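Dear Dr. H.,

I hope your travels went smoothly. While you were away I took the liberty of generating a structure for the chain from your last submission, since the lab meeting agenda had it listed for discussion. I wanted you to have the full record in hand beforehand rather than looking at slides cold. The sequence, exactly as received, is reproduced here:
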Amino acid sequence: MLTFVSKNLIFYDMKKQIVLIVALVFVATTISAQSDSTGGTFWKPNPRNYNVKQAFEIESLFPMFFYGGWHVGLGYRYEKFRLRVSVINGGDYNADVQSLDGPIDGYKRYYTTSPGIFLGYNVWKNLEVYGYYERHTFEVEQLSTGEKQDIPSNDVGIGISYQFFIGRTFYIQPGIHSYFRSEQSTTFANDQTYTIPTFELTPIVRIGARLWKRN
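The corresponding predicted structure, in token form, is as follows:
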């Protein structure tokens, strides 16, 4: 059974990025907002950002850039529904830190360029619950030999996140993602076998911009 301490260590890398973003948002919200008679305030525009009939948005899981990777997502919102497509490349980020058992000794697993599709629903204000499918190709490195093997994986999951808007255009969207996949493994030249975790739970944080909207 995992202890509380070990679980904290598993999510440390991503959590420290979320703490940084939350701190920046907190500092930003101390700035006085200007108001007018028709448009509300900078932080509480009128109409509110969640009261939108249609919108196009672009966003990024920006912590991937810290690891030499990248991520971009495009979303279309129709009232409370949101459809989003994305592509991720994780650079040298070790995806095994997301598994409940933590990193696997002697191995690292990387996101290569992989697409995904997400369908969500705003259950309350900007709180979104969504399901998704991602066609990942993971590159697994055996650290002792430097040998690498690819494992393709069909990942599905459920996520929950909240869009914190900064004015009418930009937003920060922290959340939690779960991943489910079938059990797969690969064998290296020295006959050692790596088995990919079948379940992962990870905090995420995206930044984005609403490019167009219709109220």
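Two observations you may find useful: The helical segments are 4-10, 12-28. The first helix runs from residue 4 to 10.

With kind regards,
E. W.
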